[in-house]
C-alpha cells in the first residue's frame, strides 16, 4: 500500500525499499498486475524482525543495490518471482517454497534455507555457505543456474533436486549431502 511508504508511493526501480522499525513486520509483495522493481531492499538497523514475502503471482525485480537480510529476518517466496540483477544475501531464513528465483545476481545463503518445488534459473550463481543448512521440503528444479553447495543439504521424504538446461550442483569441499530420500534418484537430470 502506497500510504505505508515514505512519500506515499511504492518504491520504484530507482529507489531503495527500506524496511525498518521496532517489532515484527512482514512486507508482502502482491503485484499481480505486473512486475514491481526496486533498486534494492534495505533492512534497517532499528532491530525489528522484518520479513519480505512474495506470494501468488507477484513479481519483484531487485536492482544493482541488491538485498541483504539480517539474521533476525526472513525472505520468503511462495509462488512469486524474484528476479535479481544485484546481489542477494540471506543471513536469516530463506524460504523458497515455490515460485521462481531468476536473474544474473548472485545469491548467498548463510542461514537456514528451506527449498521446496521452486525453479532456480538464470545466469547468477547460488552459493550456500558453510554456515547454511538447506532442507528440501519439495523437489526444486535447478534450470541453467549453478549452485555451489558448501553447507549441509538435507534430502529427505520423497524429494529430489531436478537438474535441467545446463544446471550444475557443485558440492564444495566441506559440503555435506545427507540423503535419506525414498526417491530412487535424489539428484536427477542431465544438467
Please describe the topology of this protein.
Layout: E1 16-19, E2 24-29, E3 36-43, E4 49-55, E5 59-69, E6 74-84, E7 88-90, E8 93-103, E9 107-109, E10 112-115, E11 119-121, E12 125-128, E13 133-136, E14 141-143, E15 146-149, E16 152-155, E17 161-164, E18 168-171, E19 176-179, E20 187-189
Parallel strand pairs: 1-3, 2-4, 3-5, 4-6, 5-6, 5-7, 6-8, 7-9, 8-10, 8-11, 9-12, 10-13, 11-14, 12-15, 13-16, 14-17, 15-18, 16-19, 17-20
Structural summary, described in words:
The chain is mainly beta and 191 residues long. The chain has no helices and 20 strands. It has a 20-stranded parallel beta sheet that branches.
Quick overview of this protein structure:
This protein is an all-beta fold. It is built from no helices and 20 strands.
Beta-strand content estimate: over 45%
**Average pLDDT over all residues:** 89
What is the number of helices? 0
**What about the largest sheet?**
20 strands, parallel
Give the termini separation: 41 Å
Q: What is the 3D form?
A: globular
Order of secondary-structure elements: EEEEEEEEEEEEEEEEEEEE
Tell me the total number of β-strands: 20
| Unreliable stretches covering 5 or more consecutive residues | none
Which bin fits the share of residues in helices? under 10%
Tell me the structural class: mainly beta
Rg, alpha carbons: 16 Å
Amino acid at each position: 500500500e502506497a500510504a505505508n511508504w515514505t512519500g506515499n508511493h511504492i518504491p520504484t526501480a530507482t529507489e531503495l525499499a527500506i524496511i525498518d522499525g521496532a517489532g515484527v513486520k512482514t512486507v508482502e509483495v502482491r503485484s499481480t498486475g505486473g512486475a514491481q522493481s526496486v533498486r534494492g531492499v534495505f533492512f534497517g538497523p532499528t532491530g525489528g524482525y522484518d520479513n519480505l514475502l512474495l506470494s501468488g503471482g507477484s513479481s519483484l525485480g531487485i536492482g544493482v543495490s541488491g538485498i541483504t537480510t539480517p539474521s533476525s529476518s526472513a525472505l520468503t517466496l511462495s509462488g512469486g518471482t524474484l528476479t535479481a540483477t544485484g546481489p542477494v544475501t540471506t543471513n536469516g531464513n530463506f524460504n523458497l517454497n515455490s515460485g521462481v528465483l531468476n536473474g544474473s545476481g548472485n545469491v548467498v545463503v548463510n542461514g537456514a534455507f528451506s527449498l521446496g518445488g521452486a525453479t532456480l534459473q538464470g545466469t547468477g550463481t547460488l552459493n550456500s555457505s558453510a554456515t547454511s543448512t538447506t532442507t528440501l521440503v519439495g523437489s526444486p528444479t535447478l534450470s541453467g543456474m549453478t549452485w555451489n553447495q558448501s553447507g549441509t543439504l538435507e534430502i529427505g521424504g520423497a524429494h529430489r533436486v531436478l537438474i535441467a538446461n545446463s544446471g550444475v550442483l557443485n558440492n564444495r569441499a566441506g559440503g555435506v549431502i545427507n540423503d535419506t530420500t525414498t526417491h530412487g534418484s535424489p539428484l536427477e537430470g542431465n544438467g
